[in-house]
Amino acid sequence: xxxxxxxxxxxxxxxxxxxxxxxxxxxxxxxxxxxxxxxxxxxxxxxxxxxxxxxxxxxxxxxxxxxxxxxxxxxxxxxxxxxxxxxxxxxxxxxxxxxxxxxxxxxxxxxxxxxxxxxxxxxxxxxxxxxxxxxxxxxxxxxxxxxxxxxxxxxxxxxxxxxxxxxxxxxxxxxxxxxxxxxxxxxxxxxxxxxxxxxxxxxxxxxxxx
Length: 210
Prior knowledge:
Layout: E1 6-10, H1 14-25, E2 31-34, H2 37-43, E3 49-55, H3 63-73, E4 80-84, H4 89-97, E5 102-105, H5 110-142, H6 146-156, H7 161-168, H8 172-186, H9 191-198, H10 203-206
Parallel strand pairs: 1-2, 1-3, 3-4, 4-5
Helix pairs in contact: 6-8, 7-8
């Protein structure tokens, strides 16, 4: 993933695009503008952006339609801030209920927009970090043998080595060997570290037979 996500401004008003481009340059935030939702879909990679600023009402595909499509096609959509005219505020409010981050009514205060974008970029960075960490953990889990995964499951259940040995019908010495290998591959030093590392990863994703 891009370590410095850009801001996407999607608005069919050229003046708005140019204004926001200059505004974000004052914060040295990378920005890319698009004249329509269709242009964004045709020429952008969603993962390159940490915040989307989208006009609710545009010629062709509306901002709301774009948001719905992105949610349908992608597992993660960066924070979205909608720009709206007075008559479109109810639609923007509904979009927030559907998962958009926020909205601003035109004409909007630049300082308020900067604050909202900064919060969105921070939220996106936190999500990216979490996803990266989870991918790393899943990669380590893939290194475990089927038997090591079984032993890991019992360790997470709080079982002692003797209990694990009895349940899996193996010797205590074998359990100890598997336990040591698991700790090495997962890069931890205790069962507590393992439990903390795996608390947000569903058991069935790495131990299908559980």
